[in-house]
């Protein structure tokens, strides 16, 4: 039953990510060809500045909301209303700083206007956090999927209109803002059958939110030092064209690194519920399955991404961005580290031990910042990519060490060997097709489909994915059960 519920919601989220990614990459294809490497570099710079404050405004509220609503079932509407009000106020205050800070930096008016619009787009993303937590708690993630697919489709349509009507860089950001606004509205209206979320200010609840958020805010601020330092430093020291080449590869990475957090968001309510209620056996079972499926997602994405990086960037961004393929190959190693870090970090959060991660964030930030500067000065965008690999790897190792000191690792590795075997079979098939892919979109899709098919069949054959889970999934209704039924 547990595997069935997790598997179903993971498949729903994965499907929406695949479809959403397809639309997103279509939009990127329009934008990169329209703006060129230098123009896309300007887009990347403006988006990076706005996202710097958007990430800071995150406050870990998706995780905090997940913790609170799984501990206080009887006050769900009141709690969610307070969380939403806190989210609106905090996001407005923090993200609103981005355009103001831009005036202090040596950027021109067009980038400044882009930061204003990008900040609005990220503000709507921030408001979604509370609704995402609700859908994850009730295992009704098909609602998240609907919002994802519709908004990404609008983004792709808007990208085409930007090109057709020559709307310029600001047109790109207007499209982003409108697509994210629609995404928020869908989340809001689909939540109304599950909870009545309005505006509430309860000082006791806000204090509880702040007490849970501040350790996450501290880690987020430290995380920003190495998460966005690459693009900001690159924009100061290198040409807009180099920023564009790096930013194009990073667009692909942004999509991939969202996957472990989507999956972890589904697992966290289970971990929190079992840990807080003292069900150690259930907690250990969920933790092991969490680990197995994390590795099962990370392995093929990393290896397949490295093999197909060149064709992906040429076909997605155009021939002017061929050099981005090398950047993507390096950054795929960072994706693997993010998967690992996400797993250990969410285990720490499930036990309310996230404060113990702060020293590792401090170490990573202090060591990554000078490394970014040195490598970018000497090696440009490839240096930035390798510095990103270092920072994500350091954090993955740090989070694993923090959990080990709590005695919370204790994992079985037998499934990992079977996943490696399945990945090897997939890789052999994709490598065999690599010489005939060239710049043909159809061949690339065929290679990805073939590799994915072989990998899934191998997982089933090796017993990583249970056949009974698949049979149960086919007969399962779309309305997911409440977490309280677990």
Automatic annotation (TrEMBL):
<dbReference type="Pfam" id="PF01943">
    <property type="entry name" value="Polysacc_synt"/>
</dbReference>
<feature type="transmembrane region" description="Helical">
    <location>
        <begin position="381"/>
        <end position="403"/>
    </location>
</feature>
<feature type="transmembrane region" description="Helical">
    <location>
        <begin position="111"/>
        <end position="132"/>
    </location>
</feature>
<keyword id="KW-1003">Cell membrane</keyword>
<feature type="transmembrane region" description="Helical">
    <location>
        <begin position="415"/>
        <end position="437"/>
    </location>
</feature>
<feature type="transmembrane region" description="Helical">
    <location>
        <begin position="293"/>
        <end position="315"/>
    </location>
</feature>
<feature type="transmembrane region" description="Helical">
    <location>
        <begin position="443"/>
        <end position="465"/>
    </location>
</feature>
<keyword id="KW-0472">Membrane</keyword>
<dbReference type="InterPro" id="IPR002797">
    <property type="entry name" value="Polysacc_synth"/>
</dbReference>
<feature type="transmembrane region" description="Helical">
    <location>
        <begin position="144"/>
        <end position="165"/>
    </location>
</feature>
<feature type="transmembrane region" description="Helical">
    <location>
        <begin position="12"/>
        <end position="31"/>
    </location>
</feature>
<feature type="transmembrane region" description="Helical">
    <location>
        <begin position="249"/>
        <end position="272"/>
    </location>
</feature>
<dbReference type="GO" id="GO:0005886">
    <property type="term" value="C:plasma membrane"/>
</dbReference>
<feature type="transmembrane region" description="Helical">
    <location>
        <begin position="327"/>
        <end position="345"/>
    </location>
</feature>
<dbReference type="InterPro" id="IPR050833">
    <property type="entry name" value="Poly_Biosynth_Transport"/>
</dbReference>
<feature type="transmembrane region" description="Helical">
    <location>
        <begin position="84"/>
        <end position="105"/>
    </location>
</feature>
<keyword id="KW-1133">Transmembrane helix</keyword>
<feature type="transmembrane region" description="Helical">
    <location>
        <begin position="171"/>
        <end position="191"/>
    </location>
</feature>
<protein>
    <submittedName>
        <fullName>Uncharacterized protein</fullName>
    </submittedName>
</protein>
<feature type="transmembrane region" description="Helical">
    <location>
        <begin position="212"/>
        <end position="237"/>
    </location>
</feature>
<feature type="transmembrane region" description="Helical">
    <location>
        <begin position="43"/>
        <end position="64"/>
    </location>
</feature>
<feature type="transmembrane region" description="Helical">
    <location>
        <begin position="357"/>
        <end position="375"/>
    </location>
</feature>
<keyword id="KW-0812">Transmembrane</keyword>
